[in-house]
């Protein structure tokens, strides 16, 4: 259909794909948990925690949207990528949902005020 064709060719924010972000998708039981990544491929403990917790999934979607918006307009692409690598490393060291949430909130604040 024409609608499906338009969606398939819709422009994507610059930088979002390069950072590994995808459009939010439905995953999990009944499709209630949506993340910026495919939960079926989540093998790390941290990503499995995000996929199983709707609040963490919401933070993930918020961060992905903010990152895409900042990447589309920021002249600081290298710094933005470096910050993302640092965020992913910090997130990867988390062992609890509270830690993951804190790391996400910190990165969201950085994106809001730092670029």
Short descriptors:
about 120 residues, mainly alpha, two-stranded antiparallel sheet, 5 helices, 2 strands, about 5% strand, disordered N terminus
Helicity range: 55-70%
Unreliable runs, pLDDT <50, ≥5 residues?
2-30
Count of individual beta strands: 2
Order the strands across the largest sheet as they lie in space: 1-2
Concise account of the structure shown:
This protein is mainly α.
Describe this protein's structure:
The structure is a single chain. The chain is mainly alpha-helical. It has 5 helices and 2 strands, in the order αββαααα. The protein has helices spanning 2-8, 45-52, 54-73, 77-92, 97-113, and strands at 25-27, 33-35. The chain has a two-stranded antiparallel sheet with strand order 1-2. α3 (54-73) packs parallel to α5 and α4 runs antiparallel to α5. The protein is globular.
């Amino acid at each position: 259909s024409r609608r499906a064709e338009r969606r398939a060719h819709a422009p994507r924010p610059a930088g979002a794909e390069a950072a590994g972000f995808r459009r939010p998708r439905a995953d999990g039981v009944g499709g209630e948990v949506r993340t910026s990544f495919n939960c079926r491929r989540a093998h790390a403990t941290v990503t499995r925690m995000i996929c199983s917790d709707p609040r963490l999934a919401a933070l993930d979607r918020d961060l992905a949207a903010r990152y895409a918006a900042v990447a589309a307009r920021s002249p600081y692409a290298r710094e933005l990528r470096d910050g993302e690598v640092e965020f992913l490393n910090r997130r990867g060291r988390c062992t609890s949902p509270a830690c993951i949430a804190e790391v996400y909130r910190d990165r969201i604040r950085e994106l809001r005020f730092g670029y």
